Description:
CATH topology of the largest domain: D-Maltodextrin-Binding Protein, domain 2
Strand content: 15-25%
Radius of gyration: 27 Å
CATH class of the largest domain: Alpha Beta
Order of helices and strands: HHHEEHEHEEEHEHHEHEHEH
Number of strands: 10
CATH superfamily of the largest domain: Periplasmic binding protein-like II
Number of helices: 11
Structural class: alpha/beta
Mean pLDDT: 87
Number of domains: 3
Shape: elongated
Amino acid sequence: MTASRSLPSLNALKAFEAAARLGSVTAAAEELSVTHGAVSRQIRALEAHFDTVLFDRSGRGLVLTPKGDRLHNGVSQAFAGLRESCQSLVRELEGAPFTLACPGSLLARWLIPRLERLHRELSELRLHVFASEGDPDPRRHDISAMLAFLEPPWPADMTVIELAPETIGAVAVPDIADTLIDQPLEALYRYTVLDTASRPQAWRAWARHTGIDPVQLDEARRRGQGFEHLYYLLEAALAGLGVAVAPKLLIADDLAQRRLVAPWGFVETSARLCLLLPAHAPRQAGERLAAWLREEIGAGEDVNGQTCP
Length: 309
């Protein structure tokens, strides 16, 4: 069978990948626990298989030829994928914890109050949750999944499970909000507009869906009070410092107990609350968690606050 139709020896590819990555046949032999001669023979067999030279041996050390560099790029990615798949299976078989990254505001205001029930009902996950401030890459090996509000397009190299649409609204304590009910949207400028650096697009999305003048709103935001994180913004709103824009999910309990009121209801944005599963994540565990989260979100959908058209 010709080289174009067959794959070379896996041992030859392993020897080539190690030698190319380490830049040394000796180092590759040590890593693979074989002799120097064994690695050299595997590389020569690979070159014979493709009938091309993969290393330039004219100088000191090993230098990939252009064709060798092209092969190494593909082979290194393939071996990385194999390692990830094997490690993922080992973690699942050994009962490794399922690590969920979650934004601090979502963790503190929505997930933590439900965490005991989540641990009880999905105890087999051995769930470990940490706050994902700073937007860590969900592809990291120590992250099994990430919970986040995202706007499409979704990343092509991960499984993205949509849980719920994002709905946001302008909210304030009853003493403020009750004066705004049945008033035009511009009435919010009577009060300080509260903003957050972690979600600068929120007020703009609200303006786009309600029809309020975004330029005038931006000016009010500049005159208002800003906070670094959404969690602090919501605490400021609860303290009666002004009017904030907030995701309905994060203030569900505050709405139910009338600590906060949305005088103009809520609008649905293009963002979605999603569970992101990187390629190495245990898929079945992620799907079980997504089903639990979706059911829990659905159970709270009747919380106070109408939706604007």
